[in-house]
Amino acid sequence: MQVTNSTWFWLLLLVSAVTSGLLYSYSTKMLTNINLGEISDNSCNEFEVKCSYLLRSTCLNKKIILKRMISVTNYTPNLEEHSPWNRKPCNLSVAHAVQKHDHFKNKFNFSIPVLLWDRLFSRELWNQLDQRDPPYGWQGLSYEVIVSTLNLLNTPTNAHLFEHTMKQHKSCIRCAVVGNGGILNGSRQGQEIDSHDFIFRVNGAVIKGYEKDVGTKTSFYVFSVNTMKNSLISYRKLGFTSVPQGKDLRYIFIPSNNRDYLMLRSAILGMPVPEGRDKGDQNDQELLKGWLARFSFVWTRPQAYFGPEAAASKFKLLHPDFINYLKESFLKSKLIHTKRGHLYIPTTGALMLLTALHTCDQVSAYGFMTSNYFNFSDHYYEHKKKPVVFYMNHDMPMEAILWRNLHNAGIMHLYQR
Ligand SMILES: *[C@@H]1O[C@H](CO)[C@@H](O)[C@H](O)[C@H]1NC(C)=O
Ligand SMILES: *[C@@H]1O[C@H](CO)[C@@H](O)[C@H](O)[C@H]1NC(C)=O
Ligand SMILES: *[C@@H]1O[C@H](CO)[C@@H](O)[C@H](O)[C@H]1NC(C)=O
Ligand SMILES: *[C@@H]1O[C@H](CO)[C@@H](O)[C@H](O)[C@H]1NC(C)=O
Question: Where in the chain are disulfide-linked cysteines found (predicted)?
Answer without folding.
Answer: 175-360
